[in-house]
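Regression test case RT-17, inverse folding.

Input:
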């Protein structure tokens, strides 16, 4: 045994009575043997049944082979088949199995009195476990359109354009179905699924067993690739092996954040064992591939790896299709044999994996060149929604880092491994260059990435070539070893940020609140979610909106119609993607006394001067907010909309031939929004580098010159379209679909109707203030709550189409 393996086993032994223990060992550090010994030790101590859980069939076979090398007796179970079952039943050895077998809704292990479980690769288990609690219906499935049509009426009032795009298969389309709609349609969805053989198909049968009685309490995401029905919180609290009588050990190659670990396993305070030593510290060359755009970089990669056996990992099926034959795309049906054939081949083959950042190992000479093509994204729709829709930033960076680290572990399995990680795509390269993102990765990996950035500078200055560097690292040349050894350790590293206590407390509370909802204790669930939302409001308003929506769900199921509507609307006022139920102004406006602010006073003045005329003008504005060639009408409508919101509105480009199309300013708060209308784009178009993205550099300079010291939101108003891969949009540039401004105008109309009916001459401003809050029209919330997308997230749309719908 290596030193770190000894430390791991002894460290665990010192706290073996603990219910939950995390053992962190670098990929290739020998955690498999440590885990097997711990499992056997638990068998011996408890005389009970112990599982060792792997991600895939390949890893089951590898782990079993390692046990046999060390004369450790065991059983295996996967695909419904046993080997050496007597070792498990007789409690003489562990059973090696996979996550699917343990977490599926009909798991044979639910009936076993398990005394312990070893979870291998626990840092990437979330996707494997989530898959067992998710019913996924692809676009070709007979149930897809019937389920989608259950929500046609709702989306026709709220997001018709993106709904139709989802039905047509646009990869960027992603819609969250509000929980008030899920409650209304739960029985119909159940009927559609049963009518379409949900209980007879392997892909849906096991998840159906978990969810069949709880569909109305699950999220439903509709996308261009299909439908996903899954709980917002993994309900592992329903499984017997997460009780106090089962000991759990989590083997991980990357120290998971406390919150991420809690979101996966529902465990907050696990004890940690972190052995020292240099096991698994493989020598890696990071290649920041040059090229004008993603396609140019891909061409460069093909040339660079022409004579090298190479594994390519892409985030989606469309991205994988950019690697045509002779590149071989791995299919699950080919199984372990296909991986073995690639491993054993001496030819310079290209194996393309789609969103497989874990579970397939190609150590040593099996493969020494890894290409990461594009920034990894969540394979589940709910992860995509939280990352790119709600933009819960505390989760985004950690998710991406975990996927990158695990992807790198596919070919680097020990400290004797050496090879290259070739980075393809500006999005991926930009992400890795950012020190704020690097801090989520292990120390050595941070240093190797920075070393790669320095080598790219040398290549740009013609002091080296990537072809020679690649040849040097693969052949183990002495000059490369000296260069690497003398410099890689000199780069600074940043410690991974600790999750703030408030965030851990919120995620713990969310799990407890959802457990109450799952058990249909709706009053307590509504109360728990309400407290969570109030606490989250102090730190992260987007997260607070998410909790508020689930508070509305619990109140709705509890029959509290008025309260449910109010909290649903409060959530939508912060994030419109969460959905707005229909409601009359009088039922949602607070009766509490308020003091009108600057915006209410401005709107009240406008209302008083134009009483009775505003509704007609708003209808005209709405009529002009259309996609098509007449962008000037759209610009004027956006200008007037800002004016009706109580803002100072202008059209700099039209009036001064410079600056954004429309500028909204909140003078008192030294801020506003620069709006650029791109509503003439076709549904199959894209935002170009110069004409659409580049001009924001000019707008930024204009704003700095004309309005120094002010902060302005930067917004493209137009379709949700891909951004050209050779463009480099500002990090904060948003794309907001035109429909969102139509919806904003409609809410303004509803507000004016309410004020018309409720306000007396003496208290118009007070009435307006209450209505601005109730209808979600307070600045800047009225803009920031709209459905929006970071232009940087739209740079490569192929990365956004999930691979799991295959």
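Golden output:
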């Amino acid at each position: 045994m290596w030193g770190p393996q000894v430390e791991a086993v002894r460290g665990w032994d010192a706290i073996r009575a603990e219910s939950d223990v995390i053992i962190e060992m670098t990929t290739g550090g020998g955690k498999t043997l440590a885990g097997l010994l711990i499992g056997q030790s638990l068998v011996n101590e408890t005389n009970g049944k112990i599982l060792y859980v792997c991600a895939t069939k390949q890893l089951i076979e590898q782990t079993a082979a390692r046990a046999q090398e060390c004369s450790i007796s065991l059983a295996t179970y996967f695909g419904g088949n046993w080997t050496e079952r007597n070792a498990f039943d007789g409690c003489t050895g562990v059973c090696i199995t996979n996550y699917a077998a343990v977490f599926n809704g009909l798991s044979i292990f639910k009936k076993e009195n398990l005394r312990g479980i070893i979870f291998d690769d626990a840092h990437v288990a979330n996707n494997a476990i989530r898959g067992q609690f998710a019913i996924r219906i692809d676009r070709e499935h007979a149930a897809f359109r019937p389920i989608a049509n259950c929500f046609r009426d709702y989306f026709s009032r709220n997001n018709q354009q993106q709904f139709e795009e989802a039905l047509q298969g646009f990869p960027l389309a992603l819609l969250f179905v509000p929980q008030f709609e899920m409650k209304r349609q739960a029985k119909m969805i159940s009927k559609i699924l049963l009518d379409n053989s949900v209980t007879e198909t392997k892909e849906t049968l096991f998840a159906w067993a978990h969810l069949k009685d709880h569909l109305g309490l699950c999220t439903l995401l509709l996308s261009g690739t299909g439908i996903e029905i899954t709980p917002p919180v993994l309900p592992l609290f329903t499984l017997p092996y997460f009780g106090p009588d089962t000991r759990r050990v989590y083997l991980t190659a990357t120290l998971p954040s406390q919150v991420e670990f809690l979101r996966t396993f529902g465990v907050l305070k696990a004890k940690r064992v972190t052995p020292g030593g240099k096991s698994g510290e493989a020598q890696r060359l990071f290649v920041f591939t040059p090229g004008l755009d993603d396609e140019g970089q891909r061409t460069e990669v093909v040339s660079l790896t022409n004579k090298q056996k190479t594994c390519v990992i892409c985030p989606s099926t469309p991205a994988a299709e950019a690697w045509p034959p002779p590149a071989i795309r791995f299919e699950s049906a080919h199984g372990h044999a296909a991986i073995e054939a690639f491993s054993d081949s001496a030819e310079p083959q290209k194996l393309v994996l789609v969103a497989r950042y874990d579970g397939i190992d190609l150590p040593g000479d099996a493969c020494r060149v890894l290409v990461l093509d594009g920034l990894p994204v969540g394979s589940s729709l709910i992860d995509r929604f939280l990352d790119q829709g709600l933009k819960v930033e505390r989760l985004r960076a950690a998710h991406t880092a975990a996927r990158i680290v695990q992807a790198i572990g596919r070919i680097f399995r020990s400290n004797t491994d050496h090879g290259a990680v070739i980075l393809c795509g500006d999005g991926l390269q930009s992400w890795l260059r950012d020190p704020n993102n690097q801090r989520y990765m292990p120390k050595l990996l941070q240093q190797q990435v920075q070393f790669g950035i320095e080598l790219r500078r040398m290549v740009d200055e013609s002091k080296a070539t990537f072809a020679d560097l690649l040849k040097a690292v693969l052949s183990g040349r002495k000059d490369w070893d000296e260069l690497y050894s003398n410099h890689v350790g000199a780069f600074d590293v940043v410690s991974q940020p600790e999750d703030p206590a408030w965030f851990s407390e919120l995620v713990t509370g969310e799990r407890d609140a959802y457990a109450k909802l799952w058990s249909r204790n709706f009053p307590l669930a509504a109360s728990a979610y309400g407290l969570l939302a109030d606490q989250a409001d102090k730190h992260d308003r987007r997260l607070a909106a998410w909790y508020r929506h689930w508070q509305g769900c619990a109140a709705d199921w509890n029959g509290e119609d008025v309260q449910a509507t109010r909290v649903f609307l409060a959530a939508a006022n912060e994030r419109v993607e969460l959905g707005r139920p229909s409601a009359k102004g009088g039922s949602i406006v607070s009766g509490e006394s308020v003091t009108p602010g600057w915006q209410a006073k401005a709107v009240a003045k406008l209302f008083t001067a134009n009483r009775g005329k505003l509704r007609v003008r708003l209808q005209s504005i709405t009529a002009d907010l259309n996609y098509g060639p007449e962008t000037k009408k759209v610009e004027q409508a956006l200008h007037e909309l800002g004016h009706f919101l109580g803002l100072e509105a202008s059209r700099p480009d039209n009036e001064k031939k410079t600056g954004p199309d429309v500028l909204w300013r909140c003078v008192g708060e030294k801020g506003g929004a620069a709006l650029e209308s791109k509503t003439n784009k076709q549904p199959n178009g894209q935002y170009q580098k110069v004409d659409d993205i580049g001009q924001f550099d000019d707008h930024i300079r204009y704003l700095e010159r004309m309005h120094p010291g002010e902060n302005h939101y930067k917004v493209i108003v137009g379709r949700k379209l891909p951004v050209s891969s050779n463009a480099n949009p500002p990090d904060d540039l948003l794309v907001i679909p035109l429909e969102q401004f139509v919806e904003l105008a409609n809410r303004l109309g509803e507000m004016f109707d309410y004020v018309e009916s409720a306000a007396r001459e003496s208290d118009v401003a007070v009435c307006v203030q209450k209505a601005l809050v109730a209808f979600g029209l307070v600045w800047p919330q009225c803009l920031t709550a709209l459905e929006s997308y970071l232009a940087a997230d739209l740079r490569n749309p192929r990365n956004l189409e999930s691979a799991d719908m295959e």
